Amino acid sequence: MRITGDGIWGPPKDRDAAIAVLRRAVELGVNFIDTADSYGPEVSEELIAEALHPYPGGLVVATKGGLTRSGPSQWERDGRPEHLREACEGSLRRLRVERIDVYQLHAVDSEVPLEESVGTLSELRDEGKVGHVGVSNFDTDQLARAREIVPIVSVQNRYSIGDRAAEPALEVCDRDGIAFIPWFPLASGGLDAEGALSRIADAHDATPFQVALAWLLARSPVMLPIPGTSSVAHLEENVAAASLRLTEDEFAELSALAE
C-alpha cells in the first residue's frame, strides 16, 4: 500500500526505492506480500510483478478486489459480481500469474448481498483463477455467512495494540485456525501515556513500533501482521521485530493498556 503515491494514488515518488523495498523484503525472508488492485490503483500490483516476477518458490502474493478509487484517499465499495470478476482478471494480468494465491474481498458492499460477492470469489476459486479465498473488514456474523459459501483462509481487519475492535473476529480465527491479518498494525498512539511501550522497548534495545509488532505476534499463532513501508530501513526494522521476544509480564502489561 505504501509503495504508491500520496493518498495511495498514482506512482511512488521514487520508483527505484519502491522496487528496492520489495526485493529486500524477499531477501530478508518475507514470504507473504499483501496488496490490492485499488492501491494506486493498479500501481502496487504492477510494481510487485516488476520487482519479483518470476516469483521465488514459497512466496505468497495476496491481493484484494471490491474497492474502487475516484481520487487520492478516496475509497468506494463495489461488490458486484461483474466488478469482482473484472478486478480479478486485472490482478491476474498485472501480477503475471495464472492463479492468485489468496484473493480477498476488500470490504462488504452494502448495496450487494454478501452472498453474491463471496459467491463470485468461490466461483473464481472453482475455476482455478484463485487458490484460496480471504475476506477483509468483516465482522463475525459476516464471516460466518461467508464460511457457509466457501472455505475462508484469512481475515484482514484493522487491529493493533491500540485498536482492538476486531477482537471478536480474531478470537474466531484463533479458534478455527484461520489466518488473521491485521492492517494498520502499528496504530499504537495514545497508549504510551505511562511510557510502557517506550520502557519495554528500551529494555530490549528496540523501538516502540517493534514492541507493538512483537506484541501482535505473541497475541496469537494465527497473527500475520502486514506493516507497510516505502523505506528499506523501516522494512528492516519491522522484520527485526519478529525476533523480539516479550516476557510474560511485558505481554500482560501491554495487553492491559487497552482494557
Your description of this structure?
With 259 residues, this protein is α/β, with parallel strands linked by helices. Helix content is 41%, strand content 15%. The chain contains 10 helices and 8 strands. The protein is globular. It has a domain at 6-158: Alpha-Beta Barrel (TIM Barrel). The mean pLDDT is 95. The strands form 2 sheets. A 6-stranded parallel beta sheet has the order 1-2-5-6-7-8, with helices on one face. It has helices at residues 15-27, 43-52, 81-95, 114-126, 140-147, 167-176, 196-203, 208-219, 232-240, 248-255; strands at residues 32-34, 60-65, 67-68, 76-77, 100-105, 130-136, 152-158, 179-183. The two termini are 30 Å apart. Helix 1 packs parallel to helix 9 (232-240), helix 3 packs across helix 4 and helix 7 crosses helix 8. The longest helix is centred in the middle third of the chain and has 15 residues, at 81-95.
Provide the gyration radius in Å.
Answer: 18 Å
User: Overall mean pLDDT score?
Assistant: 95
Coarse shape = globular
User: Structural class of the secondary structure composition?
Assistant: alpha/beta
Q: Strand order, biggest sheet?
A: 1-2-5-6-7-8
What is the CATH-assigned architecture of the domain at 6-158? Alpha-Beta Barrel
Secondary-structure element pattern, one letter each: HEHEEEHEHEHEHEHHHH
Helix content: 40-55%
Number of strands: 8
- DSSP strand content: 5-15%
Total number of helical segments?
10
